[in-house]
Amino acid sequence: MLLDLLKNGDPSHAAIRCPEGPTLTYAELTTQVERLATELRGLGLGKGDRIAMALPNGLEVIAAFLAASAVGTAAPLNTAYTCDEFKFYLEDTSASALLVPPSGADEARAAAGEDVLLIEVSVDSGGQVRFSADRKATARGAKNEADDIALILHTSGTTSRPKRVPLAHANLMTSARNVAATYALTPEDVSLCVMPLFHVHGLVASTLATFATGGTVVVPAKFNPLSFWNTVREHRATWYSAVPTIHQVLLARAKGSRPAGAEQLRFIRSCSAALSPQTMADIESTFGVPILEAYGMTEAAHQMASNPLPPAPRKAGSVGRGTSVEVAILDKAGNVLPPGVTGEVSIKGANVFSGSQRGIFFEWLVPDRRPGSFG
After folding, report:
1. 340 φ/ψ angles, rounded to the nearest 5 degrees
2. Domain carrying residue 246
3. What is the pLDDT of residues 66-112, one digit of tens each?
4. Which of 162, 168, 201, 265 holds its CA 20 to 30 A away from the CA of 301?
5. Are residues 61 and 112 in the same domain?
6. Residue 78 lies in a domain
7. Distance CA 162, CA 36 (A)
8. 220 and 82 co-located in one domain
9. What is the pTM of this model?
10. Which residues, including other chains, have CB under 8 Å from residue 373's CB and lie 6 or more apart?
């Protein structure tokens, strides 16, 4: 189970640091998650129950996610959804419960109605995450296993209605370890998480991959370009992963000068959208740090390919090579195509969700949406 990832860390080493809140060691985080899981079971939740979450970035969403995935299936949602959007996702996931902050989240609360158990999530002055709900029930004892569904996310829905993607504990643990291996993460690494934790990018790459190697994840409440480099310096971040838009914002604010703190970074990762070769070159020349473009997809529990760390060559306009997965470009008949030809990207590996055919996922690429060469 995902909770096993926390066993990789030195119990006394910092697992989570929140610039606006507490710092928790691996031992403290593990204890909290186990307690929260017991509390969820005490509310009558168990294996097969979908536990939705509408929580901002921070300690509470990470602890709640790990607890929810240990008990049933976590379904994190965008806190900015409208009431109708929340209704769609709650109904689509058949959510039994919804985790919300102690105040606000009016749209999510309204969408839950009377059929979904509301559980308020708070963090007290001692850094303890607390659940509060108006229900008591008989605790359910069955525990999740590696093949059970830990997380439900949805595709973006850019070309059709958003579709559910059920990811098992084994899928997520495999992907987290693949990310960690690609970037040679160690307990000394500090990941600055600037991506939202309702998205597979921030959840798997920034957070779970860090836990897989016993490192530290720094979790601000949200991305703030004004305080970004102060946070890097204060918490001695060694890497961060973000979408190209965030990289471009930071680049524009730098105005050609290397920000103080950039020298601490070992690498920068870019994923979830294509990174232009010019932006890649500008970031590396301004920040003095290698930027590694990766290719990810929700159906594959995030990462499928990445440019490598130096001294291996990085290829601008490319998403690099497959990272512990098999990757091929196929035609509609399933034949392997030569380099430079448009076709389906076929991915095979233990990270791919079971809804695909025998662990293989296909994505048709049209010419203007190609992620780049795998070479």
Report:
1. 85, 0
2. 179-324
3. 999 999 999 999 999 999 999 999 999 999 999 999 999 999 999 99
4. 265
5. yes
6. yes
7. 30
8. no
9. 0.90
10. 315, 317, 318, 319, 339, 340
Residue keyed to tokens 């850019």: 158
Helices (H), the chain: 26-42, 59-71, 83-92, 106-112, 169-182, 200, 209-212, 228-235, 244-254, 277-287
CATH number at residue 314: 3.40.50.12780
CATH number at residue 92: 3.40.50.980
What are 282's two structure tokens?
């500008």
Dist CA 351 CA 300 (whole Å): 5
Coil/strand/helix, residue 63: helix
Q: How many domains does the chain have?
A: 2
Residue type, 163: K
The string of DSSP letters for 330-351 reads: E-TTSPBPPTT---EEEEESTT
Backbone phi and psi for residue 159, each to the nearest 5 degrees, phi listed first: -115, -10
Show the tokens assigned to 218.
Answer: 């720094």
Question: Using one digit for the tens of pLDDT, what is the confidence trace for 143-173?
Answer: 777 778 999 998 765 556 778 888 999 999 9
Amino acid code (one letter) for 369: R
Q: What confidence tens digit (pLDDT) does each residue in 335-363 have?
A: 888 888 888 888 887 787 775 444 444 44
Task: Please give the C-alpha separations between residue 306 and each of 20, 248, 258, 337, in angstroms, as whole numbers.
Answer: 32, 20, 25, 20
Same domain as 316, residue 185: yes
